[in-house]
Design brief:
Two copies of one chain form a homodimer. Chain A has six helices and five strands; from the N terminus they run βββαβαβαααα. Chain A is of the alpha/beta class. Chain A has a single domain (about 1-190), classed as Nucleotidyltransferase, domain 5, CATH 3.30.420. In chain A, a hairpin with a 4-residue loop joins strand 1 (about 1-10) and strand 2. The interface of A and B includes residues 46, 78, 82, 89 and 104 of A. Chains A, B: Belongs to the RuvC family. Chains A, B: This is Crossover junction endodeoxyribonuclease RuvC. Chains A, B: It is found in: Cytoplasm. Chains A, B: GO terms for molecular function: crossover junction DNA endonuclease activity; DNA binding; magnesium ion binding.
Chain lengths: ~190, ~190
């Protein structure tokens, strides 16, 4: 079976979106990648509307099993982090409206999953996601690469989490996304 | 003519919502007030969905001319401010989807408009909004009172802004909400 993950690196000026299909053996294939941009000269309501409509289109077109969103931290300046949080709210609500589970991952988790080191730099993430997805050229801009890396990270982490949980009493500790993976796995087994 | 404003004091745990009708002579009347609450034990996607659906219902039922939302600042701790920003993003996008203009006001602006002092405390705001709206008892909780105060603040500020702008070249500086008020005023004058 394949898990389709839509990754989002939220932002008002550039919101990276990437869709990957990840197989049980961890092989990941890019389905689509893009960036939604809005101008700082636009009003906040207009900017959030553009992002909301774009996410709706991506969810409608690609029908992901789960959405992975970068967890927002305050390492940025205050006005930037507000916009990122507002955009992430809109994106998460769009998935929730469709009953698509949402998982949040920190930048460190993404770096660790993709490069093996939580302290890796952005270039290393871009380089390795290009290799993981067998792409001819690095996805640009960096927000697009980050969205793909988030999606792959989620599938790899959810897969191992679900595998661990099926053998013990820890299934209550699963995130909705991990439950989705575990249920999809169970369904695939029944269908064999 | 009357301007109907839906005010929102955004938050994940308690999101205050208030609707007021404000006449040209600044007389304000409460139409509805309420609070949408979500539990911190719920997942973020579930919490944002509950808020999104509630706002949709309020917009559908009350059909405001404009939405006024409290501008989020970082005076709170980081995790709280993130949730507030995410909720505000969802609320603003809901209005934008319906073509309803959105205006942001700071807590100081609300205090100044309602009490005459930007440094007033919350109790003073609640007390005065109760008097302004001729209510028998103070709206509870504080988030509900804040939402009503935001709505009144917006109408009063937009009204004076529009009045000033019609006499000078400053109309380009109007917010969308102020333009909505100015246009509604012009329409009302033509209709007489």
């Amino acid at each position: 079976m394949t898990l389709r993950v839509l990754g989002v690196d939220p932002g008002l000026t550039r919101c990276g979106i990437g869709v990957v299909d990840v197989e049980r053996n961890r092989r990941a294939t890019m389905v689509a990648v893009g960036v939604v941009g809005t101008s700082p000269e636009e009003t906040i309501d207009r900017r959030l509307l553009v992002i909301a409509e774009a996410i709706d289109e991506w969810l409608e077109l690609h029908k992901p099993d789960v959405m992975a969103v970068e967890r927002v931290f305050s390492q940025l300046n205050v006005s930037t982090v507000m916009g990122v949080a507002q955009a992430s709210g809109v994106v998460i609500a769009a998935a929730a409206r469709r009953g698509i589970p949402v998982a949040l991952h920190t930048p460190s988790e993404v770096k660790a999953a993709v490069t093996g080191s939580g302290g890796a730099n952005k270039d290393a993430v871009t380089k390795l996601i290009t290799k993981i997805l067998r792409l001819d050229a690095p996805p640009k801009p960096a927000d697009a690469a980050d969205a793909l890396a988030l999606a792959v990270t989620h599938a790899w982490r959810a897969g191992s989490g679900a595998a661990a949980a099926t053998t013990g009493p820890g299934s209550n500790a699963l995130t909705p996304a991990q439950r989705a993976w575990a249920e999809a796995e169970a369904k695939a087994r029944r269908g064999r």
